[in-house]
Every structure is written in structure tokens, then in C-alpha cells.
Amino acid sequence: MSEQFTRRDLLHQAARGTVLATMGGGAGFLVRKAHGQVVWQVDAARCLNSRLGEVGVEACNLCTTKCVVALSAVRAVNEHSRCGRCNICPAYFNITSAVDARGLPSEKLCPRDAITRKPIGKADPEDPANNFYEYLIDEEKCDGCGKCVMQCKEPLGLGSIILRIRYNRCVDCNRCAISTACPKDALIQVPVEKALT
Amino acid sequence: MQYRQVAVIGGKGAGPGQFGASLRAIAVDARGNIYAANDSQITVFDAAGRLRRRWSTSQPVHSVAVAGDGAVYTGQIRQIEIFDGAGKLVHTWRDDALLGRVTAIGFVDGDVLAGDATGRAIRRFDAGGRFRNNIGRDNPLNGLLIPNGVVDFGVDAHGIVHAANPGKHRVERYTPAGELLGHIGHFHGTDPAGFGGCCNPTNVAVRDRIYVTEKAGPRAKVYSFSGELEAVIAADVFDANCKNMSIAVDRRGRVYIGDTVKLTIFVFEPVAI
Amino acid sequence: MSGADLQVCAGRPGGPPRAGCLPHMAGWATRLAILVMVAWGTMPAQSIPYQRPVDEAPQEKSIGGGYKTPVVQKPLPRNSWLQVLDVAVLAAAMAISSWLVLKRRNRKSVVALAIGSLAYFGFYREGCVCPIGSIQNVAVAMTDPRYSIPMVVTATFFLPLVMAVFFGRAFCGGVCALGAIQELVLLKPVQVPRRLDLALGLLKYVYLGLALFFALKPAAARDFVICRFDPFVGFFRRTGAPHMLLIGGAFLLVGMFVGRPYCRYLCPYGGLLAWCTRLARRGVTITPDKELDCGLCIEACPYGAIEKMRAVRRNCLYCARCYAACPRDGELARAKAQLVKLS
Q1: What is the ipTM of this complex?
Q2: Residue C247 domain-assigned?
Q3: Which of residues 160 through 219 in chain B touch A, CB cutoff 8 A?
Q4: Considering only CB atoms, which chain C residues are within 8 Å of B142?
Q5: What percent of chain A has pLDDT over 90?
Q6: Residue A134's beta-bridge partner residues?
Q7: For residue C52, which residues of chain B lie inside 8 Å, CB to CB?
Q8: C282-295 mean pLDDT
Q9: For residue B45, what is the domain's CATH number?
Q10: Closest Cα partner for B102 from B63, B153, B144, B148?
């Protein structure tokens, strides 16, 4: 059916054109600023569990409780090249527990038993005090509660264990629920290339 | 035995007698003068705590010790600079392989001992700077376990080297030739007689007893040579975040401890109970 | 609901409303508010320098025994090309939606598309990235110089709007996962009284204003409320806070009788789409000289998109129920045509 091209149609066309132009302009502006994929990451310098200076504070487990993923997307990660490989590791053992016959603390710290250790290098099977140990955190068991991170922190430890968001688990929320709750604003968005270096 | 604090020397800042940004080591000479290694300077105080002299070193300085003849040995990175009592540079010993970060210097029978934190060993040099032997390496197995970055030791009147082995929670005794004689100390998380945390004690000084400092629950303690805890010198006065506090003891038994965060030297004196 | 009430908003049947109409002004007020709101920067939390000299830790030669330091795993996020694929699927789904509704006029295939979208955008992608939430990102990116938005999110925001400018709310019909889940639970549609429908419809703009208010706060205080209070994301992720799952369940329960309550009364993006639809040339049309005046389509439409025998395109959620009910158009007509031959 043919329609007369009325003034209303002209206004409509004009309005459509204006709206599309505005949208195009807006999109162009945003695209020019775009820098690709961003992901959330925990800033170790701000995170309560790993930042220097806080002593005698309870480990913060907001990363575990606030994350929308079932068993949080945050894990404690041991950066091996920075680890002291100590025999009495305050993140592995609960160093205030009773000392057993071998001179080691009797209890382990991790509530989910996620940290394992094995002697490395030239190892003495008789005396654990003589050895270096490699500490490995099992990511399937860890839930990011932060207890080991708080114990590993300087000056007690060397700070090799920090909380890290694992990208195979993180759903990359628009506004990370942990970031809203974090008391130190430690959750930051970084370009994905930077997060993986 | 108990100790009481008698003086506080230095502080953080740029004023005279203050330590700028770091306080890494202290030493005491036979007359009771206190030498502090801070930033790239050596600062000298007299026994009453007044600033006497200050001079610069060419690199950031990590340790200081005063020889019997008054020469001041300063440990830096890959070198040891030797100054006379007035602060004039007399010798420089350089060794890229054997001297990493020199965190302690001591003297035994005319030889100079340098604690190399990078190589985790104590190097023995003769008076002319020629290397003689290592102490604490591969003995018994992995030698000195040093996760905290500082090798420290003291030499007693008999020439026995008492080296802190923080990874094993003990202070080990060596002959100057490097033979391990024994050790004192054990790990314990709660008992003050033991060493807590992951690596303690961090620093040690020896005169008539063994004086040690610890971190993470900072405190200074004194043990007899047989390993009994004689006193906890101080604990709460130090900053909770300090690490690797240097310790020195003078002839009168006064203990000098350098807090690495407050950048202050605390002086303690034994009191008869 | 008297005819007089209808006169307040509608200019001519099917045409744009008269200026002065309340939803009209609310929409413009919100637009103005967007322009006026300016995000101010904030100082980031001061951090203590985090120096960890690596040579303090024992290195391989100190450990000896041929030990090699293991490399710390760095699991990769989802490939960015898959996000581009999501945008492509979005565009394709909207194209299919408008074709199915406007050309094929087939309700069954619209339901199939809704199921497919629910599976892909809902349960596979877990509801992210969605155009509704992208309003917040776009608003922040426009105002905060330090915030930049990935291109796929810009595309996700603008594509359904561009589609709406030409074809109307094709996004709402069978593409939006939140719409699809509500569409599929609608069992016994109840017509909402017109005045109530209009009043509740204003909530969309209130929500839009609130969402922008919280999104445009400084970075530390920024809160994306659309994401946080998404009632259905708990189902998509198969996990969530108990209160949010209950609210989602309540929406679905209500949605069994009241057609798509979130879409019509709360969706902020729906508000934007409704505005773009006013400019659309194509959309569901009830042709004046072909229609029978039977009113079956009005009864069939659960969304109040047909008034006085004319389609109100801005409310049309592309469900194709009207076509299914129409005796002259759609399947009914084609089915009858096979049986009856006009002599």
C-alpha cells in the first residue's frame, strides 16, 4: 500500500537519522577509548592479607565469601621463585601449636588441607630441619580464605603466597562482588595481557 | 636476669644523629663508641649517645665492624670498604664471587670474617684480603639456611664463630676453619626459650653470652653458651614489622639493638635483681 | 479503564504520544539527568610499596640437587574471540527473531528461539555480557576518563538499540535470556489494567535513574545494581545468595500469570528500547482494512501491546501470540485455509 510522504514521516526520518548518528558518535567515542579485554585481579600491595604493616590482624576471607562462583574464583598461589622453602613454614604449619618429637608443629594451618610439601634439592631423610621444601597449594581444595597468605606475609614469611583470581574459574563480572566488599579496594581491573605476565 | 632500657639513639629523619631511610647494622668498639650503618653512611656516637662523626660510603652499607686497631670495616654489595677511625678510606676489597651482600663482619686471630648473604656463607679472609676458607657452607648438608636475607655471626673470646642459622632455628658454633662444633636453640611456637616463626634468630652477638634478636614477634634474648635462656631483653619496644635487627654488646654488658623500622638504636643495661 | 485515559498519552493510533504525557516526560527527564550527571575522580587507596627482593629467597643453585623452580600456573581467561562470537550470535538471533515474527509470524519457532537463547545466553554464558547491564558500563565509560569499555560490550549495548530503531524490540522477543525465561513460564496470561500497567511502567525509568546514579559514582563506591539485583542470574549460574534466588523464584511465579513482569516494569534497557521503537518503521502491524475487529489479538497479547485494534509497538515484546490468535493472519489462517475453500 502506498503512503503519502507526510511531514510526520519526514520528522520520523530525521529523528531516526539523528538517533542513529548520536549512537554512532557514542559508539565511535567508546571504541576509540577501548583497550580490549580487562579482567579482575587482586592487588597484593593493597590486599589486607598480603600488604605490609598490618600485624596481628585476622586473615580476611571476603574473597571466599563474596565471590559469586560456588567455590570462590580466588586462590592462594605460591610464587615458588620467591618462596623461602623453610622447614617450619608458618603458612603450612600452625606455628603456635604444640611441637612434636621431630621438632615440627603438630597442626597444619590450612583448614582445607590444601598445602602439601616435599623436600627438594639435597635432602636429608633423617632431619627435616636440614632440608629445603617446596610448598604446593592444591587449587582444587583452596578456597582463598587467606590464612596462609597472612602468615606468609613479611616480616613473618617472605610474602611468596598471595591471593590471585584464577581466570579459568572467574566469570568476569561487570562489578566484581568482592571488589564492592573489599575494605582496602584491592580488586582492580587490568588488561588481560598485564594480568598474565 | 633483667634488662632495662637506658637510652634511645637516632630516629627516622634527616636531622643530625638521625638515620634517614634505613638502619642496617650497628657495632661497638672497645671504648664504647657506637657505629651505625645507615643508608650509605657510617654514623658514630660516643658512649653517651652524642653524635661524634659521620661519613659516607660509596655504596649502601649493610654491615659495620671495628677491628682491634680502630679500623672500621664496612660491608657493602660485592665489596668491603675499610676506613680509619677518622673516616678516611684506606682499603677496598672487591670480590664479585665471594662477596655478595656483606651483612656481617667479624675478626678472629687477625683474620677478617665476612658474612655473605647472597652465597649464604661466612667467608674468612686474612688481614690482606686473601680468601682462606668458608664457614657454614654445606655443613652438614645445606649449610646456613637463610630465607631472611641476612647472615649474622659473632666471635667469642676463644675464637669460636657463633653463626645464626635462622632456617634451622639455631645458633651454630664453628671453628674458624669451618668445622661445625655444635649448636644451641630449637624451634618452638610459644615457649620463649625457643625460636618461633619461620626463620629466627636473625642476628647474633657474642661476648660473655650469646645475644640474639628475632623477628615477627620481635624480641631480643640472651642465652648462656650451653643454650639456656637467661633473659628476654626486650620485646614490646620494637616495631612489630621490623626484621633483621642488628645487635651489639659492649664490655660492660650493655646491649645495643637497631630497630630497622623505627630507625632507632635502643640501649639496654642488665640490672641486678 | 476508560477511553478518556487512553487519550492522554496516545496522539493517533499507532503514532507517537502527545508531548505532556507522563511516561514521555519521565523518559526525557532521565535523558537529561544522564547528561547532567558528571563522575568525579577519586584518589585510589594508598598502597605500601611491596618490595620483595628475589635474591633473598634461596635460588636453584643454593638448593642444589638439580632442582628446577616450577613455573607458577597462569590459567587463561575465555578467549576474546569467543566474546566476538557472542556479539555475532546476538546479532544473528535478533535478525532471526524479527524475521520469525514479522515475516514467518510463527509462534512455535519464536518459542524455539527463546529456548535456544535461554540455553546460550542464559545457561552457557551465565547471563553475561548482557545489554541491560551494559548501560552501566557505557555510562561510566562516557563520563570517567580512566574507564574504558571493551568493544564487544559497546557492540552489545548498541546493537539491540539500532535494531529497535528499525524493527522495534526484536531483542526482547526470544533473544534476551531474562525475557526468554519469563516468556517460557507464562502459562495463563492475565491482562493487567491499563492504568496500573502505565504506572508500573514508570518504575523502569526510576530503576534506570538509580542504576545510573550508582554506576556513575567514583570508582571505589561504584555499584552496578542492575547486575547485583538481576533476579535470574542465580538460576543461570546455578548458585547464588538465597534471597536473590527467592526473588528470582518469585518473579517466575508471578510471571506465570502476569506476562514478563521484569521486562515490562523493571528493565531499564526496555525503557531505552521503547524509546527507539517509536522511530521504527517496521514492526507488528494490525492492518486497518484487513482486520476483522474480532479482538482476539488483544486478548492474546499479554503485554498490552495492542490498544484499540492497533499495535503499540513500544510495548510489543515480539512474542507472536497475536499472530497465533489471529484468524486471518498467521498459522490459524494458514491452517484454516487448507480446510476451507472459498467458493
Answers
A1: 0.84
A2: yes
A3: 167-169, 186-190, 194, 196-199, 215-216, 218
A4: 62-64
A5: 44
A6: A118
A7: none
A8: 75
A9: 2.120.10.30
A10: B63
